[in-house]
């Protein structure tokens, strides 16, 4: 792509690449860093910057800020003396620096603030102190900052997702003070360019206040209430290792590979949340007489839907500014978008409207507090109770108990919704559905036992014998195998192998997996899965496990070798046979490649078009046979 192909222009391209890289580093890294460094040293803040453990990053950001201030001053001076070209160039440079700093603030600083605030407000939940966080930061500053930034980014993402869900339920125009991320006219870079700095600063401060208040309402206050009402419930156990007989690695893999994907991939969760939000909105609207404000009038919505073509035609012909009577939010949208409010619907304003809005906000805060209390207690209670049957009195990580309890709660809610959907039907229909679902559950359990139980166990045991045991256990020691850990590792390996198979070329295993995935759970074909998928895979894994063992334990002792050699063969036969199979695969691949190369050379030399001709050397002797008439080919 750069012309580095060994031609005569090689040095020219190398020179341009090196020059451009040097110029880029000089302009965007070297100059801002040294500007910030000289400023910090001049102000005497180098000790504070050095204590932050991010001296280079902070110094560079300070340099960019000072560079932006310098560009603003120079831009003003250029405008004062009417240097148009210099003014335009300085303006473009200032816009680049401004957008870069705003991106750093929006994507880097704001999630980091949210993450640290979440951590500070949840210290009592984990029985931690600020001193512990300080020690953690001193020991690993980069990792600590990254984890807090990641937590803050997840919090901001889910908050934005919930706002998008609210927009699907509420009347258009209710959330006029929040930016609509799904709006096709929304352009964050354009806003960064056009809006002044004080507007961005005001928006940043308001965002910090709103997000921080929500954290106080839904995390800090529920923790205080739980500690007061249930003194023995907190703190959560978040130790890294457990004294239970179950391995932490196994639980983590079980959580990541089984519980969370099955919970997150279900589309019913979002529908349930949307239904709850709509039910709460309807209830609050009728209690406070704000149904028209929150959801709009159904009759007016129908009329607007019928008159929408005429309104669109009128809007195209007359792009007028909205009247003042449409409300403050409509005017705000008109100012931002320089036109009429998009998607705004009128509503009926009841008496004492500000008081009703205040009561609505108070009702919303109480609802969020109760929901947070339930989310912090119910899944953990259920998970601890279920885990007690498995691990006894041993304490395990609360992440696993919460995930287990959340999954059980989801299953219970799903079962209740299914039963409620079946209740209006007749007994015969319910009996047929129960029979159908029972049969489907039995088939699913059998398939899960084979595909999620036997195959991962055999795969994990094979991996343990081939890779882990030869590398970790010396020859004079006996390896110990834990079926639970082998199964957990086998689940991970099975998912990786399945993903690689689906991304690879077309062969029988990929075809079978795609067919099973296309059938789904409702149309599960037990006979097809056992005959085409489970039986071949289990047979191959059993052969891979049993044949080396039979050779090492049955044939080698008959040869009369010493016990040390028997032990060596038993411990190294699995990786040896793997290496043999690997070499045979490489050899067969190379043989096929050489055959293809041979066929390619032969076809290039002897194949003319679609006709194979003989190749003979010209002899000096004249041929006695009459020559064939030659035909010219065009």
TrEMBL record:
Q: Does the keyword Cell membrane apply?
A: no
Q: Which reaction does it catalyse?
A: S-ubiquitinyl-[E2 ubiquitin-conjugating enzyme]-L-cysteine + [acceptor protein]-L-lysine = [E2 ubiquitin-conjugating enzyme]-L-cysteine + N(6)-ubiquitinyl-[acceptor protein]-L-lysine
Q: What Enzyme Commission number(s) apply to this enzyme?
A: 2.3.2.27
Keywords (alphabetical) are: Membrane, Transferase, Transmembrane, Transmembrane helix, Ubl conjugation pathway
A Gene Ontology molecular function term for this protein is: ubiquitin protein ligase activity
Whether Transferase counts among this entry's keywords is yes
Which subcellular locations apply to this protein? Membrane
Q: What class of enzyme is it?
A: transferase
According to UniProt, the name of this protein is RING-type E3 ubiquitin transferase
